[in-house]
Amino acid sequence: MSIEKVIVAKPRGFCAGVEMAVETVERALKRHGAPIYVFHEIVHNQYVVRNFTGRGVHFVQSIDEVPKGGKLIFSAHGISPVIWQGAKQRGLELIIDATCPLVDKVHREVRKFAAQGYWIILVGHEQHDEIVGTSGEAPERIRIVATAEDARRVIIPDPQKVAVLTQTTLSVDDTREVIDILKQRFPKLLTPAKEDICYATQNRQDAVKQLAREVDLVLVIGSRNSENSNQLCKVAQSQGAKAHLVDDHHSIDPSWLDGVKRIGITSGASVPETLVELAVEFFARQGAEVAQLGFVEENIHFALPAEIHPTP
Hints:
- The mean pLDDT is 95.
- This protein has 3 domains: 5-14 and 198-293, 4-hydroxy-3-methylbut-2-enyl diphosphate reductase, catalytic domain (Cobalt-precorrin-4 Transmethylase, domain 1); 16-100, Rossmann fold, CATH 3.40.50.11270; 102-185, Cobalt-precorrin-4 Transmethylase, domain 1.
- With 312 residues, it is of the alpha/beta class.
- The strands form 3 sheets. Strands 10-9-11-1-12 form a 5-stranded parallel β-sheet, with helices on both faces.
- Strand 4 (71-74), helix 3 and strand 5 (94-97) form a beta-alpha-beta unit.
- Helix 4 runs parallel beside helix 5 (129-135).
- The termini are far apart.
- The longest helix is centred in the N-terminal third of the chain and has 17 residues, at 16-32.
- The chain is built from 10 helices and 12 strands.
- Helices cover 36% and strands 18% of the residues.
């Protein structure tokens, strides 16, 4: 292996929603102690999940798994009103909602459009936690589309009264294609005042496009079930670069490095910076020069849920 240079994308890693959700669990553990129950994975990253599991956090797929009197946190991906109601009826000591505010914005848009009698096309992946939660706001009025082909085939009862919303972590380019098709099919299509794809998704995709043009290979650090990490890999490949999604530097296949001189590294919005640092060190120890590419500074922070906010 003769890697000459490692270029790290900026921005990368934790977004404001993930920071808020992870800090919520940290403070809940500190204030209330284990066990803490979290509905779904707090964020889609195996390193984060394993760390919390080892400290007494239980990640559950059903409210029924939370014992009466238990302490429950809803993950960053958001939940449906049915889940909320079930939790309230469970007799729990504490319920904390760590939904990302940008996901919550989409939930509010669903409620608004549904109340106005619109049919809602939700662009996203049907089984993703975020889409499951969002569609639960008005399941009878929502149609989910994931691809351009879906957009061409979706049937809407009233084509004159349609709105479109999107999952926050999708590829900006893929979503644009789907929405363009929907606009052609439904000329009166309403879109939100501000697009749903979050600032962090946009910034990381822009950075990886720039990175892909400078290197022979892009490594995206992130878990397989992380939508935004998978999208970063696709975006890099769309620029003509070879790209692989890896959990950490231990997952790198040496055969990928044959003939590679310059490697780019980025990470999904749910990935701790320590995993990037370890990957960079792995190559630096072998003599690679390290550089950074990108200029966007992110200074967005979301308030912690009121139930866990430090007392003044």
